[in-house]
Design goal:
Number of domains: 1
Largest sheet: 2 strands, antiparallel
Helix content: 40-55%
Distance between the termini: 26 Å
Number of strands: 2
Strand content: under 5%
Structural class: mainly alpha
Number of helices: 2
Shape: elongated
Oligomer: single chain
């Protein structure tokens, strides 16, 4: 078994593509990056929000609430990435 820089197994676990934490990672369909559970949920939600915002815009519907939610989610992802 390979040991990381601090003599632990952590070195063999790749980091999350957003937060950099070395936890169990998951794949999202259509994405090459791997994410921890918390980040994968936020990334998946951001993908869905973007799709819904685009659909509402194309249909001429109000998307202000979705845009605000997307902005909050993006801020949270950015803060998580910057703290890595």
């Amino acid at each position: 078994m390979l040991l990381g820089p601090k003599c632990s197994e952590e070195g063999s676990i790749p980091p999350c593509s957003v937060c950099g934490q070395r936890k169990e990672l998951v794949d999202l369909p259509g994405r090459s990056e791997k994410y921890c559970l918390a980040c994968s949920a936020d990334v998946a939600t951001s993908i869905l929000l973007k799709t819904e915002i685009d659909a509402a815009t194309m249909a001429g519907q109000e998307a202000r609430g979705l845009v605000a939610e997307f902005a909050q989610l993006s801020k949270r992802l950015l803060e998580r990435a910057q703290s890595a």
